[in-house]
Write a structure and sequence with these properties.
By secondary structure, the chain is α/β, with parallel strands linked by helices. Strand 12, helix 12 and strand 13 form a beta-alpha-beta unit. The radius of gyration is 23 Å and the shape is globular. The chain starts with a helix and ends in a 15-residue tail after the last strand.
């Protein structure tokens, strides 16, 4: 009977790990406020080399849109704030703009969205009242050209649109925006099948409150979590808390809006900053972007309030832009230098780059496609998983956002059929404390990972685990980087 139960458990876990989760997508914002950037054709080759399949632009520059033609890269273009008023007041202007800047390039250039304005409430408040009318006129122009099903219309909002964001259950839009702008915008997004764009930067919140907010909490690293007493939900990442504040604010305008999808239209972390910009460093930028990409592509981008949400994310930004005004950080958000070298190692596809090149590095995603988009059972080495080994020190830790149910199933697999040595987390043993599911799962996952030679596929457990390059903090327990 014990053997039969063990086989049933292994089979059940195999189904769990093979099923996986629907994943979101990761793109980048391609800004061009610089005088030293490569030509658009070279940039498109760079995007393809690194497996970046989506870009968001801040205009409709013809040379850029032509370079993207027939590349297979999906594109979001922008109608700038300066043209918002004209688009709102004159449907003919919106139609001419769409003809000239979208229809002229489509479908060779796979334009899938139009961002009407950018952070209008924060940077162009004088046209706030004209935002939704402009969105409606642009959509009407797309409909007239039979493009409205393929090209969606939205507008990125900043978190400053919220009057309150902490705790997440207190999220609410500013009074002057709530009924006048956000409710009509959500009506528009619902009726057109579009999505709400949100620019969210945990870096700003951390830099302003470094004495209160844990860096691990900001970078998606293992941490004790933050309890929202208003909802009873526990948060293990600052971005989740920010997004749930938005979801809460949306829900307060009407339950019917809870089905509106959210796209993170900008998020990132600077690799360099001024002295007062606490936390700005290449290591932290690699940690934030790498861990975020891993979460999104492994189907674990849901939040405590919306655990099943598949959130699409656009990292900010593709390049460091030397002509951006403001503090040093503003010129150092790029994943790449203008010479096309990476500022730090971060990958955009599961298991590493699609083409020949270096391995997963610090940004590797923990498992490699095996031909049918499914990781081997238990994250193990079968099913066509490539046996690449992570360089340098590396540890496998539990992904708290996976939830206790998935962590428990993966923990049972690792300590059972997986062959991990879990004696260290038994009662009274050296690593029993802290007695939490995340800590115990991290211990088991790491032992499994190290025993398997840290090969790709041995730290995934269907998104319940991920690789870190800094030693995890687990009370007095130290996880080994070898066995």
């Amino acid at each position: 009977m014990a053997l039969a139960r063990g086989l049933l458990l292994a089979a059940a876990l195999s189904l769990l790990f093979l099923a996986g989760a629907d994943a979101g997508t990761v793109g980048v914002n391609w800004g061009r406020v610089a005088n030293d950037l490569p030509n658009p054709a070279s940039v498109v080759q760079l995007l393809k080399q690194h497996g970046i399949g989506q870009v968001k632009l801040y205009d409709t520059e013809p040379t850029v849109l032509r370079a993207l033609a027939n590349s297979g890269i999906k594109v979001v273009v922008a109608l700038p704030n300066e043209q918002l008023s004209a688009a709102a007041k004159r449907p003919s202007y919106a139609l001419a703009w769409v003809r000239r800047n979208v229809a002229a390039y489509y479908p060779a250039t796979q334009i899938q969205g139009i961002a009407v304005g950018n952070e209008v409430f924060a940077t162009a408040a004088n046209v706030t009242s004209q935002l939704v009318p402009a969105m409606a006129n642009v959509h009407a122009a797309l409909a007239r050209l039979n493009m409205d099903k393929a090209v969606k219309v939205s507008s990125p909002i900043a978190l400053t649109a919220l009057a309150a964001s902490y705790p997440p259950s207190a999220g609410v839009f500013r009074e002057e925006l709530s009924q006048a702008v956000m409710k009509p915008m959500l009506d528009f997004l619902s009726s057109t099948g579009s999505y709400l764009m949100v620019n969210a930067y945990p870096f700003f919140a951390y830099a302003d409150n470094a004495g209160v907010i844990s860096l691990d909490y900001a970078l998606f690293r293992p941490n004790a979590g933050e309890l929202d007493s208003g909802s009873g939900l526990k948060y293990y990442s600052l971005l989740d808390a920010q997004l749930d504040a938005v979801f809460t604010a949306v829900g307060k305008l009407g339950n019917s809006y809870n089905g509106v999808r959210v796209v993170v239209s900008e998020t990132g972390w600077p690799s360099k900053g001024d002295a007062k910009e606490v936390g700005a460093s290449a290591a932290n930028a690699a940690g934030y972007n790498g861990n975020l990409v891993r979460r999104v592509l492994s189907g674990n981008a849901g939040t405590p309030r919306r655990p099943d949400a598949n959130v699409d994310v656009y990292l900010f930004a593709l390049f460091n832009e030397n002509q951006k005004p403001g503090p040093t950080s503003e010129r150092n958000y790029g994943v790449f230098y203008p010479n096309q070298q990476q500022v730090y190692d971060v990958e955009f596809v599961l298991g590493g780059r699609p083409a020949a090149g270096k391995g997963t590095g610090g940004g590797g995603l923990g498992w490699q496609d095996n031909g049918n988009n499914a990781p081997a059972a238990g994250g193990g080495g079968g099913g066509g998983v490539k046996a690449a080994v992570a360089p340098g020190d590396a540890w496998c830790v539990a992904n708290a956002v996976a939830g206790e149910g998935r962590l428990k199933a993966a923990l049972d697999y690792a300590c059972g059929p997986g062959g991990a040595d879990c004696r260290g987390i038994q009662p009274g043993a050296a690593c029993f404390e802290p007695n939490t599911m995340v800590s115990h799962a991290s211990y088991a996952f790491n032992d499994y990972y190290q025993r398997k030679g840290r090969s790709i596929g041995t730290c995934d457990f269907a998104g319940a685990a991920y690789v870190v390059s800094q030693a995890p903090k687990m009370g007095k327990c130290e996880l080994p980087s070898t066995v």
